[in-house]
Amino acid sequence: MITLSNINKTFRVARRQAGFGRAVKALFSREYELVHALRDVSFTIKDGEMVGYIGPNGAGKSTTIKIMCGILTPDSGLCEIDGRIPWRERIAHVSKIGVVFGQRSQLWWDVPVIDSFELIRDIYKTDEKTYKYNLEELTELLDLGEILKTPARSLSLGQRMRCEIAASLLHSPKVLFLDEPTIGLDAVSKIAVRQFIKKLNSERGTTVILTTHDMQDIEALTERILFIGKGRILFDGSLAELKKHSSRRKTLTIEYTGAAPEITEGMTLKEKKNGHLIITLDPEVLPVSDAIAYLAGKTELIDVSVSGITAEEMVAELYKEYQL
Amino acid sequence: MKLYMKYFSIQFKSQMQYKATFILNIFGRIVMSFATVASVLFMMVRFNEIEGFTVSQTLLCTSIVTMAFSLSEVFARGFDIFPRLLGNGEFDRILVRPRRVIFQVLASHIEFIRLGIFIQAVAVLCYAIPGSGVVWTWDKILTLFLMISCGGAVFFSLYIIYASFAFFTTEGLEFMNILTYGGREFGRYPYSIYGKRILKLLTYVVPLALIQYYPLLYLLDRVKNPFYIFTPVISLLFLIPSYAFFRIGLRRYKSTGS
Question: A122 and B89: CB-CB below 8 Å?
Fold first, then answer.
């Protein structure tokens, strides 16, 4: 169980204008600017939940994660994970969590991955039985077999990420923090990683907290979304709710022969090519069926497809709405 | 300790991956550090003796300080490159692992290449011993051992202080080099030659003289008081303020993030 209530965090950032004179001046008196990284952040995550934590760059995602990992102390507010305050009981706390920073490696660069794993086992004081069991299972699920004997430096990004994830699960953590786990991966690796995380959550009941910019990750993985912007939690709920919350616009793509149809009220033209139209539709003004009927009356339709808003667009819209 | 050995072996394996680099580097450092010895020799040839210390006695001093310094370079490398650990996020990784922070910083960076200097210093020591006039009784050997090991600890403390500054500022750490590298460079000669004030500073503030000048006097039979054997042990007290300073820095890091 993870509880955050009214977490606040401000950073003091030194500011100075460009130019030599200013630089000299800054030596003696610095101007600081307070940046509110987190304001009154509160949420609860139950055991075994899988939560997607999204928001634009600089919104406060990493700060929250760092607080939950015990790296940072907040200015005020309470954070409890399994009854422990992360920054007070760092060692006890971190032995129960796993952390993957997508952009940084935790493996030793020049030695075979298995050597890193063994050192990690010793760091976490994992007993041999648990370690063996976990290693076998992870090797199978993440298809690590041959990779384990390769030095980390000669792995591809996808292989390395699989090893990173395995490395942070060797000690059977109850909570797993994933900071952009699919960044830079190719499609196949992304899918493999996603499937694994899903399985981990459903079979072992590991709580997973995932930050990402890839909305497909969110769509594929999480039931619940926490959306943060400018240090505040702006939305906490399911993806479906988020979709409802945002606009219900539909996108209509048609192919036709003959004259281009004129658009009518409730439609906006987005793209027009030879025999190919993309129209956005406001279903409250013009229902989808009426729109198709209207278009069919105007021209010879070959193909019609209707799509709802994608998660990607939805988030972009949210960013705009909150002026992030 | 067992875990330290594991860290030790993984890094040894890592660094052995590049054997040619490793050997060339050690060799290069040995050659390079002979320049240091040469400079002492040239000076001494001119002056014959400094404050009553002969060539061999000065070289003895040089080699001891160099050994102490290289020990700290090999084992406290993590603190030497600490600003880098903060910058690239490696320190965050350390914080999310269930072991003591200082232990992890120490264990995760062991620089075997720097052993080259140690080897060279041993050679210089062997060269200096016959001419130094020291009769190696057990108490002298103990003194020598304490000088090197406690000396390593004092340099290590200096590295911790250096690292702690990195929590507060990312620039302007160069002044610390006066104490670390400077301590080694000045330590080629007995600290007393730099004058009373410096000697006091190096006795009461940064206890480098406790590992060099005072026990050296005992080693060379200039004083008979066996208290001088143990002055290097007193210098270990210096670990306390440096550790405290590191804790303060760490607390600040946790509240500022970088």
Answer: no
Nearest to A207 by CA among A239, A181, A229, A174: A174
Domain ranges of chain B: 2-256
Distance of alpha carbon A77 from its chain centroid, rounded?
Answer: 24
Tell how far CA A38 is from the center of its chain. 18
Long-range (24+ apart) CB contacts under 8 A made by B13-21 are B13/A110, B13/A111, B13/A115, B14/A108, B14/A109, B14/A110, B14/A111, B15/A110, B15/B112, B15/B113, B17/A110, B17/A111, B17/A151, B18/A110
pLDDT in tens, A206-251: 999 999 888 888 888 888 999 998 899 988 998 888 777 666 778 8
User: Would you call A104 and B14 a contact, using CB atoms and an 8 Å cutoff?
Assistant: no
Most confident of A98-102, A240-244, B148-152: B148-152
Contact A182, A102 (CB under 8 A): yes
In this structure, what DSSP letter does residue B97 have? S
Q: Are A169 and A92 in contact (CB under 8 A)?
A: no
Cα distance from A92 to chain B (closest Cα, Å)? 7
A19-28, A54-63, A215-224, A305-314: range with lowest mean pLDDT = A19-28
Distance CA B32, CA B19 (A): 20
For chain A, the straight-line distance linking the first and the last C-alpha, in angstroms and rounded, comes to 30
Backbone region of residue B189 per phi and psi (left: phi > 0; alpha: psi in -120 to 50; beta: other values):
beta
Of A73, A91, A101, Cβ closest to residue B89: A101
Q: Taking all residues of chain A, what is their mean pLDDT, rounded to a whole number?
A: 87
Query: Tokens 């923090």 identify what position?
Result: A177
Q: What's the rounded Cα separation, in Å, for the pair B140 and B147?
A: 10
A259 lies within 8 A of chain B by CB: no
Cβ pair A73:B7 closer than 8 A: no
Alpha-carbon span A315 to A210, nearest angstrom: 16
Side chain identity at residue A78, one-letter code: L
Query: Using CA atoms, how far apart are residues A93 and A106, in angstroms rounded to an integer?
Result: 19
Question: Where residue B103 falls among pLDDT bands split at 50, 70, 90?
Answer: very high
The two three-digit tokens of residue B190, written as one number: 């007995």
Q: Which residue of A has its CA nearest to B87?
A: A104
For residues B29 and B120, give the distance between their C-alpha atoms in angstroms, rounded to a whole number. Answer: 8
CB distance A151–B7 less than 8 Å? no
pLDDT > 90? residue B143: yes
ipTM greater than 0.90? no
B98·A95 Cβ contact <8 A: yes
Q: What is the 3-state secondary structure (H, E, C) of A232-267?
A: EEEEEEEHHHHHHHCCCCEEEEEEEECCCCCCCCCE
> Are B98 and A70 a contacting pair at CB < 8 A?
no
Of all residues in chain B, the one with the smallest CA distance to A97 is B96
* Optimal mutation site among B1, B4, B96, interface A, most CBs of chain A within 10 A: B96
